[in-house]
Amino acid sequence: MEPGPEVSVLLPTLNEAGSLRVLGDRLTRALAGYRAEVLVIDDDSSDGTAEVVQELAAHGPFRLLERRRERGLSSAVLAGIAASTGPIILVMDADGSHPPELIPRLIDPLRDGRAEFVLASRHVDGGDMGPMSATRRAISRGAALLARPLAPVKDPMSGYFAVRREILARATLRPIGFKIALEILVKCRPRPILEVPLVFQDRIYGESKLGSRVIGSYLRHVARLYAWRLVGGPTA
Fold this sequence. Notes:
This protein is α/β, with parallel strands linked by helices. The protein has one domain: Spore Coat Polysaccharide Biosynthesis Protein SpsA, Chain A. 36% of the residues lie in helices and 16% in strands.
C-alpha cells in the first residue's frame, strides 16, 4: 500500500480556469520533493474550471472537490481540510497572486519541527505588496492594523499559509469571509509561528473580488474574534 500524502495543498476556486492552466506546471514542480496532493475546491464555476482540474490530474497530483450549494473561501478551505489527508495543510489562492515557488519555504519548517504555522508575509523584510493600487494598499494595511492585537504576526491578512493538521483540533473554526488564517491564529494559538517574505503578485486573469461585501464580512469576522477573546476564548 502506497503511503498517503504528507502535504495537502488546498486551492479554493471560483472561475479560475485560466489561472489554473498557468499554475499547474508551477505547482507540480514546487511539490516535486514531497508526497503531495493538490485539492481544488471549486464552487460550481461556469468557466470550465472542473474540466481543467481533470486535465491536470492526468499529469500531476491534482484532484477536484466540487461544491454545488455552498459558497465562500473560508467554508471551501474547511471543506478541503475535511476532504484531505496530509498532516501538513497548505492554503493558497488560485489566481496567481501567491507564487507556488514559495511552497518549500512554507512546508519545510513544519516538517522539521521549527514551527506549527508558517505564514507568507508581505510585511517582513523581503516581502512586498506588489502591484496593488494605493487604495488597496491602504485598505490592506488598515485591516492588518485592526487585527494585529489578535495575532502575533505582521501580516494577519495573508491568505497564504501552511499549518500542521493536528493543531486545528484545538478549537472549533467558524470563520466569516476570506481570512481563515486569522481564525486559526486566534483560536488555535499555534506556536511557534514563522513568517517568510511574500512578494505579492498580480492575479493572472480576471479582477479582484475585493468589494464592500468582502470588507463588511471581514469587519464582522474581526469583531467576532475580539468578542470571542473577551469572553474567555475556548474556556467561555
